[in-house]
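Exercise 7. Given the encoded structure of a 95-residue chain, write a plausible sequence.
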């Protein structure tokens, strides 16, 4: 018996001012993810407090739905901020 994983790709391909709103929309799409959701942050160069709150909410929603969230394309500066606020342990990272 094979176990299949369904990953939902949630592209965040927008300017920095709209990251929080896009992450909130990504949270709404978690219902369609069975096991894993991939959020592409490759176009995000920096992250503000609103986006951090939205990421924290996304992690909480994912926990409630037992969905693993993978952040793809996170640059070093954004990763450092996530590390400082202790959000890195709530996500997986891929390039």
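Solution.
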């Amino acid at each position: 018996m094979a176990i299949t994983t369904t990953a939902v790709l949630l592209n965040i391909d927008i300017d920095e001012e709209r990251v929080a709103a896009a992450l909130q929309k990504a949270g709404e799409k978690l219902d369609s993810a069975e096991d894993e959701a991939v959020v592409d942050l490759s176009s995000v160069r920096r992250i503000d407090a609103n986006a951090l709150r939205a990421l924290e909410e996304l992690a909480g929603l994912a926990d409630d739905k037992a969905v693993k969230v993978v952040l793809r394309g996170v640059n070093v500066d954004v990763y450092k901020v996530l590390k400082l606020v202790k959000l890195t342990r709530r996500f997986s990272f891929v390039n």
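Remark. The two ends are 31 Å apart (CA to CA). Students should compare their own answers with the one above.
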